[in-house]
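Progress against Task 2.4 (sequence-to-structure conversion) is shown through the following example record, which the project officer requested during the mid-term review.
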Amino acid sequence: MAQIQLLIADDQVVTRSGLMAMTREAPGLDVAGVAQDAAGVVTAVDREDPDIVLLNLRKLTGDSFRHLVQLIGAHASIIVLCCHDSVVTLQDALRAKVAGFMDLEILQEDFASVITLVSRGCAVYLLPRDRLSDISTEYPTSSTSVAISSLTSRENDVLLLLAAGMTNKQIGSTLHIAENTVKKHVHRAMIKLSASNRVEAALLVSQHSPKR
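Structure tokens generated for the chain above:
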């Protein structure tokens, strides 16, 4: 199976290096190229023809940001990497119809899963839940609403915490249950939702559950 080719576009050396390391350690992913500014991104996309662009150019805002996203989107799917980016920047990216959002603190196992989902044409949002609720209305999804009524209350809680970026151990500590029990809840929920992995299950619940 061909590897998913990523272009890493980030204006900080440390972040670029970390993303390159994560990509190379993940099965099925490969680094097609790197860029540190808008001009470099456009050139690299044209030269390397990546499948997905991981975009985190903090110096771009407003019209210039949206213009760059539109240029890249004509050739590859885009995931905006978020750390301390402003809400305005996220809204600009949403309006430009990017494929996804990923918090830079995401675990490596989720990193690979999200990349795979985007490569399959899914729209993926993996941000802290409070930030997701603020911007979700900016990006209407065309996918059919997923019925989650079959989930137990505990399964729903586990997936919401997973979507918020918690590890199994952190979820267990928060809900006062064993880590192995957390894994069982996730597994059962995946079956009920016909989700291919735990990230997909968590995203489905996060996007379709009412705000608390």
